[in-house]
What we know:
CATH topology of chain B: MetI-like fold
Strand order of the largest sheet of chain A: 1-2
Oligomer: heterodimer
Shape of chain B: flat
CATH class of chain B: Mainly Alpha
CATH superfamily of chain B: MetI-like
Amino acid sequence: METSKADKVFEHLTRALGLLVLATALGGFVTLCILSWPSIKAFGLSFLWSRDWDPVANKFGALPFVVGTLATSFLALLMATPFSLGTGLFLTEYAPKKLKEVMGFMVELLAAIPSVIYGLWGIFFLVPLVRRLEMALNVPPYGVGAFTASLILAIMILPYATSVIREVISMVPRDLKEGAYALGATRWEVMRFVVLPYARSGIFAGIVLALGRALGETMAVTMVIGNRNEILKGLFAPTNTMASVIANEFTEATSRVYLASLVEIGLILFVITLLVNIAARVITERLKVNQEGFS
Amino acid sequence: MNKNLPRRLGKDRAATLVVFLLAIIPMVPLFLILLQLVMKGATSLNLQFLTSLPRPPGETGGGVLNAIAGSVILVTLASVMAVPTGILAGIYLAEYRDKILPHAIRVAADLLQGTPSIVIGILAYAWVVRPMHHFSALAGSGALAIIMLPVIVRTTEEVLVLVPKDLREAALALGVPRWRMILKVVLPTGMVGVTTGVLLSMARVAGETAPLLFTAFGNPFLSWKPTEPIDAMPLVIFNYATSPYPHWWRQAWSASLLLIAMVVLLNIAARLMARKIGGR
Lengths: 295, 280
């Protein structure tokens, strides 16, 4: 009797704490909606495509930040993908065992460096470097801007894409590879015609996951993007992302609508990253089913 | 066929070179960052830097004691909130086979894990700062706890599911009540894995800045009260790096060196733990 009662209590306790996780996620979404209500009411859907961001006139629109986020994230993805793919292949198929361990650790270290330290390095190393490049290219030498932000994002998301790619490549069945080698294929041919096609959807999932990271990245971007609230004018132009405008202006938001607009940008960011993460998940789920079918 | 062979081999060699280069180039920024952290950070890193409070801009000297203490307090408070909650919720997912709820909780945890940390900051602002009407260490650690929670929940579940059925059945057969079986047999067996997850999540939040900007806010004085604003290492690095004072830039590098040392130590500890599991 006593023990079964204690069992019940313990079970209810763990369930309640599980529910707390669920409540945090749901409550978070509801909270974002409630807090951004003044802005949703004032601007409606036009918030999404308005370019105004004028705290004095209390007129707000998210377009410059949505564009800034998408542009920097996709550019970062474009830059990071070949390197993550190369690193993934190198760590699974090319490197000798010792080197694999050392480089694997270094890639993890790249993921462990806090965002704000990337930002610091960006300000004092990358920005002057990009400024010199801009002078050579005859564009206004801000140094800060979308390009610098994308560059730093590319470095930051590389380990995430790499770790997924590495994992899926190592799951390619040995028989397939050995069969190809037995037929006289070179190592590159095995990669090109066996490993990469087999791992394709997993590689894609890794890249999508890295995109999710890039979209929400805040500090490093805030420190090097130039923080200008206008729509992206060119590759090197200073602009702002959704995350960086929140980081910059949240404590300065004086009016109700101003704060609500910033929260609504947070809500949009939340929904976009949610969709991207769901996409990555759907791909990996399908991958699992495929593999079960295979064996 | 034979005519093709040299070309195929050449292609193979070229591909090997390209793969090698693609793998080596990302290591360049890593080395540059670490090298510059050590070179620029070591110059201002001294006893005074560790043990004194910041001085006003223009005056040299001063340190980041407030931020070191703040970071320790924030991460400790966040762990106090997130670790027991996360482990017990993880136990629920691993041990109790309800129908829909565990699935929903897993989805919620993944969703929280994918949420940008700046958005988590907004939530802590709404839930703690607004009702209290001022920034506080409590709000900051709350935000960090929300970031830690899903990581701990999922690792705990993953680890506990791997604990062999025999162990549970043996304990239950001896007449041990289920909750004691879980706490005394299952959890200790998986403790190493759980600790790894906890350490990794601590390492991650120790470097988080975005969720602290409008929750913990920062504080140039030493503060121990959870209800007061508090400083943190990442906040100091951000504020100093974006300031116009060269003296603060130097201190930002030193603070970064200190922070990365903390984060790397936690990571290494977690890795050693993880290796211990592998050895079993």
